[in-house]
Specification:
Layout: H1 12-21, H2 23-45, E1 53-60, E2 63-64, E3 67-68, H3 72-80, E4 95-100, E5 106-113, H4 116-157, H5 164-181, E6 183-184, E7 187-196, H6 201-235
Antiparallel strand pairs: 1-5, 1-7, 2-3, 2-6, 4-5
Helix pairs in contact: 2-6, 4-5
Length: 236
């Protein structure tokens, strides 16, 4: 090739020259890639290739007043980092992904699996695990509040007359009771709903075209390298 001392030193002009010489191979590989991608899309939709199922549900985290018992962001981080995977026996081939709905205390969780029953089972177990953890945290919080109320009442019992200190203790007890009344338990607000996760035909074709183009490049430059070295061998 012109202006190239070695196969690895191909400038941009020569690169396109090689592509032009191998355009038939490129077109064939591109067509094969698109054909295979279309076949995969069709076979997946009619069930010959195993489908991917997705179960979606939404949970509103428990809260005490304006504060969550465990923040949605923290809970989402735990889910996405696999903290609950062991408790629901999640297979390495299956996935769980959670997001926070902006401006709310609601998290949306998506569980995917090629087995429809597994997708349902994982979601059901995960709902139970999350709600159980949230309820335990809420009970612990309520226990602390109740202990504070008892201490305030005991402190009040030590005084025989009202003064500034007893008034402050009364206000503290009232505030603790208000906090207790403001607690909201966690709740499942949607799902779990399981459905077949459809794949976009456009996305499938793009992947097929990319793979076909890449394989075509490998074949075209492989052929160029072979012809070049074959010529050198003859000249030697």
């Amino acid at each position: 090739m012109e202006n190239c001392n070695d196969y690895g030193e191909i400038d941009l002009v020569n690169f396109f020259r090689v592509i032009k010489r191998g355009k038939k191979i490129m077109f064939v590989c591109l067509a094969i890639g698109l054909f295979i991608a279309t076949g995969i899309f069709i076979f997946k939709n009619i069930g010959i290739i195993p489908r991917t199922y997705e179960t979606v549900f939404g949970i509103k985290t428990g809260s005490a007043g304006e504060d969550s018992i465990k923040g949605p962001d923290e809970l989402v981080g735990e889910i996405n980092y696999g903290v609950f995977n062991k408790s629901i026996n999640l297979s390495p081939a299956d996935t769980v992904f959670a997001t926070v709905i902006p401006g709310t205390k609601i998290i949306e969780v998506r569980v995917t699996s090629r087995n429809q029953e597994k997708a349902k089972g994982y979601a059901s177990d995960l709902v139970s695990a999350i709600l159980s953890e949230q309820e335990d945290l809420l009970k612990s919080y309520e226990k602390q509040i109740n202990q504070g109320i008892v201490r305030a009442e005991q402190a009040m019992g030590k005084f025989t007359s009202m003064n500034q200190q007893t008034a402050e203790i009364q206000l503290m007890g009232l505030d603790l009771r208000n906090q207790l009344e403001d607690t909201i338990p966690p709740s499942l607000i949607s799902g779990p709903d399981t459905s077949y996760k459809k794949q976009s035909i456009v996305f499938t074709l793009i992947i097929g075209a990319f793979l076909g183009f890449f394989i075509g490049l490998v074949l075209v430059f492989g052929k160029e390298w072979w012809n070049k070295n074959k010529g050198r061998t003859r000249n030697a």
